[in-house]
């Protein structure tokens, strides 16, 4: 295991930011810390980095107990949302910085900087200043700079958070490819479930200072440990006292399946190849149903049409005990 987090607790005054966190992250893996704002993700990342200390518990990195080590002795690289760059230095100089303060030979530094700039697709911008780069290019420079010193662990706190949706998506694909090339153990914080699902090998879901579940994107989506995870990792709707995913609702024009609830379509929305129908059942449930356009057309769905809805066979369901999150 590359990073072992054992029994970590952290309070700010009376406020419990982390509550007995235990997680093991394998070497070479890309892990997302995912959860709602204020859940404790950044606090955990800062504790792994050594920028903050836990009240109790231990952190070990590649078998070394790092709990008491200062950040510079942990061999971790960081990138934050608003990355501090040296504004007066070129892109190449920014990337070289960590190597130069370690007094590596000039030729070695030059070769390493070339290699890294190629990796992050910034070779042609080597001699520009950071202010002459786009936001996405600056974050790629930040990653190159963090990778320069060959960290054991790379820690990214919402690295693409400040960028617009399109650039975010490009960088996300790019981060995945970069990781497939360099395989450095990487932990990144995000509150965006789609980002975590697309990029991460494994996701740690953190809410109110606690780890709710650890698993691959598929495991979390298909076998959520509880209603919080189910609601946070995908859309849910409630029908006959159970939570389920809108694409798992079976809809028909006659009572085909036992226990189906009768209702009326109150709204129909076409989004690309999907149709989203809102069904108001006679019992007063408002149920969201997602189906393909073709299927909706075959059934002749429209507002005002009477329908029967129930969980499709094989649907993932969970008792709707508490208010759903997400
Ligand atoms: N230095 C601090 N002093 C007091 N409270 C803090 C401090 N740092 C964090 N907190 C509180 O701890 C909780 C967890 O914060 P943290 O930044 O870890 O959450 P997060 O999951 O990363 O959320 P976000 O996505 O909004 O950054 C928050 O309620 C925050 O207000």
Characterize the structure shown.
The protein has 326 residues and is an alpha+beta fold. It folds into two domains: 227 residues, P-loop containing nucleotide triphosphate hydrolases (Rossmann fold), CATH 3.40.50; 83 residues, OB fold (Dihydrolipoamide Acetyltransferase, E2P). 28% of the residues lie in helices and 33% in strands. It has nine helices and 18 strands. The strands form four sheets. Strands 6-7-8-3-9-10 form a six-stranded mixed sheet, sandwiched between helices. Strands 13-17-14-15-16 form a five-stranded antiparallel sheet. Strand 14 and strand 15 form a beta hairpin. Helix 2 packs across helix 3, helix 2 runs parallel beside helix 4 and helix 3 crosses helix 4. It is elongated, with a radius of gyration of 24 Å. The mean pLDDT is 91. The structure holds adenosine-5'-triphosphate. The site of adenosine-5'-triphosphate (ATP) has 13 residues, from strand 2 and helix 1.
CATH superfamily caption of the largest domain = P-loop containing nucleotide triphosphate hydrolases
> What Rg is obtained from the alpha carbons, in whole angstroms?
24 Å
- The percent range for helix content is 25-40%
Count structural domains: 2
Overall geometry? elongated
Small molecules bound in the structure, each named once = adenosine-5'-triphosphate
DSSP strand tally? 18
Based on helices, strands and strand pairing, what is the structural class?
A: alpha+beta
What distance separates the N and C termini? 32 Å
Strand arrangement in the largest pleated sheet: 6-7-8-3-9-10
Mind telling me the CATH class of the largest domain?
Answer: Alpha Beta
Number of helices: 9
Q: What is the makeup of the main sheet?
A: 6 strands, mixed
Mean pLDDT, to the nearest integer, reads: 91
CATH architecture descriptor of the largest domain: 3-Layer(aba) Sandwich
CATH domain topology of the largest domain: Rossmann fold
Quote the beta fraction. 25-35%
Catalogue the unreliable spans: none
């Amino acid at each position: 295991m590359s990073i072992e987090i054992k029994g970590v607790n952290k309070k700010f005054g009376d406020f419990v930011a982390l509550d007995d966190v235990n997680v093991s992250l394998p070497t070479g893996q890309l892990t997302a810390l995912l959860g709602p704002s204020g859940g404790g993700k950044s606090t955990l990342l800062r504790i792994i980095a050594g920028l903050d200390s836990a009240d109790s518990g231990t952190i070990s990195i590649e078998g070394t107990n790092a709990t008491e080590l200062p950040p510079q002795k942990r061999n971790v690289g960081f990138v934050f949302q608003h990355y501090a760059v040296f504004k007066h230095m070129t892109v190449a100089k920014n990337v070289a910085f960590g190597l130069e303060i370690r007094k590596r030979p000039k030729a070695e530094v030059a070769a390493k900087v070339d290699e890294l700039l190629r990796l992050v697709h910034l070779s042609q911008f080597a001699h520009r200043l950071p202010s002459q780069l786009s936001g996405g290019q600056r974050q790629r420079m930040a990653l190159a700079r963090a990778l320069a010193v060959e960290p054991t662990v790379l820690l990214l706190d919402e690295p693409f958070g400040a960028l617009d949706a399109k650039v975010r998506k490009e960088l996300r694909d790019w981060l995945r490819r970069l990781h497939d090339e360099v395989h450095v153990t990487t932990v990144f914080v995000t509150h965006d479930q789609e980002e975590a699902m697309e990029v991460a090998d494994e996701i740690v879901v953190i809410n109110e200072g606690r780890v709710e579940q650890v698993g691959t994107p598929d495991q979390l989506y298909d076998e959520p440990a509880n209603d919080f995870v189910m609601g946070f990792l995908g859309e849910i709707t409630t029908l006959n006292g159970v939570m389920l995913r809108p694409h798992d609702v079976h809809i028909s024009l006659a009572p085909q399946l036992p226990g189906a609830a009768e209702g009326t379509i109150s709204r129909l929305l076409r989004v690309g190849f999907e149709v989203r129908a809102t069904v108001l059942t006679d019992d007063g449930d408002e149920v969201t149903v997602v189906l393909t356009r073709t299927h909706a057309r075959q059934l002749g769905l429209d507002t005002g049409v009477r329908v029967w809805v129930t969980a499709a066979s094989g649907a993932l369901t969970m008792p709707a005990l508490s208010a759903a999150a997400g």
